[in-house]
Specification:
This protein is α/β, with parallel strands linked by helices. 37% of the residues lie in helices and 20% in strands. It has 2 domains: 131 residues, Rossmann fold (3-Layer(aba) Sandwich); 122 residues, Rossmann fold. The strands form 2 sheets. The protein has a 6-stranded mixed sheet, sandwiched between helices. Strands 9-8-7-10-11-12 form a 6-stranded parallel sheet. The structure holds 2'-monophosphoadenosine-5'-diphosphate (ATR). The site of 2'-monophosphoadenosine-5'-diphosphate has 15 residues, from helix 6.
Length: 275
């Protein structure tokens, strides 16, 4: 029987997940399907609870349903609970299970594209305090970083995120203190929406940044943001955000279709051509 999976969002037409999973299904000759479901927020909990009756063995969940998915699944793993959002759902023993694979995507992207990036694990600086920042902060804390500083325009929001994730090694900081933190950073992450095509650019002075600092941007349209271009020009290692999208899809595919897929150059090129 064909195993069917979908991405549920609202809107969902822009999602690249069908292309990504479709590529793996074809590459590995797996009899499966990966489609889209545009579901309005008021209909989402029922749709998810009836996932099997709707013909699916699992699903990805995207904006605006990730928090609602956490509240709806029967079993959420520790990562989903910590991040406060579910993006991957499967059915096991008649129960709906949920996880958040953005954390894996963020970490695996760095592991794959900047080997040794976490050798010292001293200090990471994250710009932003939304959902993307939360996944990155949790991943870095789990990896054992000694200090993770969240810098956000709205300081309250960073403070709340730090408190939610249990405080130390996380701390919130104001933009005015950014330089002091940058000068000790081993990793700089842009988890704001600044730099995205059509939005304002991210204006950060990188002068204080050590040469050894790895810089990553969760924005991937454009692929090379001005932050990454500037960091690259200074000689810092840079990792773009597209890899996070590719790597976050790996655990879901493995759970639904029983094969751990590879993030290859071919897959990347396929998605790049569609950006
Ligand atoms: P996501 O879930 O993708 O992380 P989000 O929750 O909308 O998205 O968060 C967007 C992040 O970009 C926030 O940290 C936001 O800062 P505020 O919390 O102060 O809103 C940041 N951001 C968006 N536009 C910004 C701007 N013009 N200047 C500075 N920060 C900005």
């Amino acid at each position: 029987m064909t195993r069917r999976v979908c991405i549920i969002g609202h809107p969902v037409a822009h999602s690249r997940s069908p292309m990504l999973h479709g590529h793996w299904l074809k590459t590995y000759g797996i009899e499966g399907e990966y489609g889209r479901e545009d579901v309005a927020p008021e209909d989402f909990p029922d749709f998810l609870r009836d996932l099997e009756a709707n013909g699916y063995v699992g699903a990805n969940v995207t904006v605006p349903h990730k928090e609602s998915a956490l509240a709806t699944v029967d079993v959420a793993d520790a990562t989903a609970r910590a991040v406060g959002a579910v993006n991957t759902v499967w059915i096991d023993g008649g129960k709906l299970h949920g996880s958040n694979t953005d954390v894996h995507g963020f970490m695996a992207n760095l592991d794959a594209n900047a080997p040794g990036w976490d050798n010292t694990r001293d200090k990471a600086v994250i710009l932003g305090a939304g959902g993307a920042s939360r996944a990155a902060a949790y991943g870095l804390a789990q990896r054992g970083f000694g200090s993770i500083v969240l810098v956000n325009r709205t300081l309250d929001r960073a403070e709340k995120l730090v408190a939610d994730l249990g405080g130390h090694p996380l701390q919130a900081a104001a933009w005015s203190d950014l330089d002091d933190h940058l000068k000790e950073a081993g990793l700089l992450v842009n988890a704001t929406s600044l730099g995205m095509a059509g939005k304002a650019g991210l204006a950060v002075d990188l002068d204080a940044l050590p040469q050894t600092c790895v810089v990553t941007d969760l924005v991937y349209v454009p692929l090379e943001t001005s932050l990454l271009a500037e960091a690259r020009a200074r000689g810092n290692r840079v990792v773009d955000g597209l890899g996070m999208l590719l790597h976050q899809a790996v655990p879901g595919f493995e759970i639904w279709f029983g094969r751990r897929p590879e993030v290859t150059g071919d897959l990347r090129n396929l998605i790049v051509a569609d950006l």
